[in-house]
Structure formats: C-alpha cells, structure tokens
Amino acid sequence: MAEFVDQFFILLKHWMLSRVPPAGQPIVSALLSVVPVLIVFPALFAFVTVLERKWLGRIQNRYGPNRVGPYGLLQPMADAIKTLTKEAVLPRGADGIAHLSAPVLLVVAALMAYAVLPVGRNMIVVDLNSGVLYFFAVGALVELAIFMAGWSGRNKYALIGAMRAIAQMISYEVPLVLASVVVVMAAGTLSTVGIVEAQSGYSYGWPHWFLFTPWGFVGFLLFMVAATAEANRSPFDLPEGESEIIAGYYTEYAGFKFALFFLAEYLGMFATTGMAVTLFLGGWSAPASFLIWVPTYIWFFVKLFMLITLFIWIRGTLPRLRMDHLMKLAWKVLLPLALFNIALMAIWNFIVIGIIRWGICLLLSLVVLIFLQSWLGQSKSWRREYKYSEE
Q: I want to staple 202 with a disulfide (CB 3.0 to 4.6 A). Which of 183, 250, 289, 368 is the partner?
C-alpha cells in the first residue's frame, strides 16, 4: 500500500499515456511532467508570500494580512488582481523588447532549473547525467535577464542597481558552485538522482546524508549563505536597496512586469533550496529507517518547507549588510572556506578508518575556524570607524 501511494502519480501518468496513440505519447509525456511543476511551485509561491508576511508581522510585533479571506489567506489573489489591473508604463526612450523580455526570461530561467530536481522517487522531469552542471548553467541566464532589466529602462539608477546585482550574484555563485563540488566528489556523479541514491542508505536507523559529515556540514552552510545572496534575500538584499538606488534594477517596472520579477525571485529561491535538499539532505529519502513508509515526495517538500522557514526567519532578524562587507564576505571568507572544504573532502576520502578521519577532519575544521575568527576580529576593514573634524 505504501509503495502504491508513493508511486501514485507515476502510475497515473503511465495510465494516461496508455490511452494516447503512440505517435503522441512523447508530447503528452512531456506535458504531464512539466505541467505539475508549473502548477505546484507557483501555488507554493502564493502560500509562502502569505506565510512570510504573517511571520514577519509577528516578529515585528504587528499583524500580517488578515482582511482578505479567512485569516488573510486570499491575499495573494488580491495582489494578483492588483498587479494585473495596474498600468504598465514604458519609459520614453526605453527598449520595449528588452524591457518585456527581461522579466519573462527571469521566470523561464527559474522554471527551467526544476527540470533536474527529483521531488520523489522516479519523480523528475528529466534525469540528466550532468544535472548539477545543468542547474548552475541555467542559473547563468539570471544575470543576463537582470542586466537587460537595468539597461532597457534608460534609467541610470536602474543600471547601477543591475550592475550591483550582477556583481553580487557572480561573486556568490563561485562559493555556491564550489560548495557543491564536495557532493559530486562523494557521490561520483553529476546526476541529481544518483546523488540522492548515494544518500539513501541507513546505519542503525540513521540516514547517510552528506550533511552528517564534517565536509558536508561546512558545505551546507556555505551553500545556504551563498544561496541567500543569490536569491537577493535579506541580509543580502542590496540590489533593491530603496534608500540608495530607489528599487534596484526593476525601478522602471510596474504592474504585471513587476509581479514577474517577484515571482521569479521566489521560484529561484525554491529551486536553489530544492538543490540544497538534494545535495545535502538526502533529497526525497526519509530521515529515519522507520519512516520510509511516508511517500517520498512528502519528505522532499517537508525539507523544502523547513529551509524556506529558515530564509524567512533570517529575513526578520538580521540587518542588511554594507556593500563592501558583502563583497569581502564572498571573496575573503566563503571562497577560502569552500576551497578548504574541497581539501577536507579529499582527506576524508583517502582515510579509510572512520574514527581517524572524523578526528582529523574535525580538528582541521576547528583550526581553520579559529584562525578565520581571529583574522576577522583583527581586520580593521570589518569595523565601522567614525572620524570627526577637529575644527
């Protein structure tokens, strides 16, 4: 019975394909794989926006949405109607094609990333041998879309915001990719399905997730910090710093075009969070051997939801960074740590005896963290200094 519930959607897809002529089965199969993604994750976007606004309201000692529908649950519908009915203004002298293409390309790039995310056993749009490489290659389209958005509006503030966003995203994409290298080294494959299967075993009921290793834990922290910056989430939301550059690269956008940017930001966050679940948290595998009866897609979305709540919690507690601190964190902290973590994975791989490799890896990690903390504490560039005129 548990196997039937777990594979219900796969069996339903095969049953529907059996009623289609052989000539049309490839097209119908592609539609049956893609359409659920186009429905589930935008619906999750609507739910998370309400959850985030309510949670941030509680953190800041105020009410969140509570007027539209029971407990404010229909607020996303009201927001959608508002954005659809607002006037879409095109600035004079702007490039109309690029101005419209930027938000569309951003949403398309975010949706394309879901193609290689296994949301359950046998539940993936396409199982590529280079799935991890494809995921990060598709993410490179985001920088292009952001540049198009800032340049096409013929606004210097939007262009400055686009340049700052691209600098931030490229800087944090380097440690994001390097944090994933250790997982590829451990699993021996670039396939996301293969990476999940490499973590599917249990020892005394405990899962073989890469998170529960020294290099996996460090890699997970690096990945999540870099993913927060990639998604332009607080405290790394400098590209949309209203007090400095109005609203960043989408200053000249309104109405439905602005809503597409908002949608793409959350879809990108969900995709990156799903990749973190796949790489470090065992993907769709259960957290304990006695829980394997729960459908695999339930475990994937439970883990995804837990990481999303972490994003919301961080947004409500941490202040925005300074631009120079943000760049130094990427190049002087995260990048060296990511390179050290790759070396740590190599040491872990070559030492066979479990107790010895655990001891050596933990000792090396502790030494590096102490050195990094001491260096950051002594560095004057990380401290804000105030100078007053003597006159």
A: 289
